[in-house]
Amino acid sequence: MTERITKSMAKNIYYGGGIFxxxxxxxLTFDTVQQIPERSNxxxxxxxVVAGKKLWEDNNCVGCHTLIGEGAxxxxxxxxxFQRRGGSDEAVFKAYMKGWxxxxxxxxxxxxxxxxxxxxxxxVDNLSDFLIWTSKVDANEWPPTIEG
Length: 148
Fold this sequence. Notes:
Blueprint lengths: L6 H34 L6 H12 L7 E2 L2 E2 L9 H6 L3 H13 L18 H15 L13
Antiparallel strand pairs: 1-2
């Protein structure tokens, strides 16, 4: 007997492999969709968090910063800025953010300036709430270091 693959064998391998890959894809998609509610922290989303996200987008913060690893790698990762600069205390973090946003732009050698966005205290609170909310999303231990 010769060890050759016939046309019908090749067709069976092709269709069988395709169906198997499709089944794996569907199973992984189903598993991912099942995990989203427990990992996304959507139950803690408030109108302030939504307003902060809108500020994030309107001011193109992602043009310089990353959030959960997505965005430009020019400025620091901000997913864990709440732990870094607020010590996980919301009042301390909001005070830090108000001070930080008020003194922009800062002259630091060899570093480009962050623009002054002229945000109101309420807008800074909304942005802070968004960053606090983001810090509680389960992102598989991202970022890998505390400094982002």
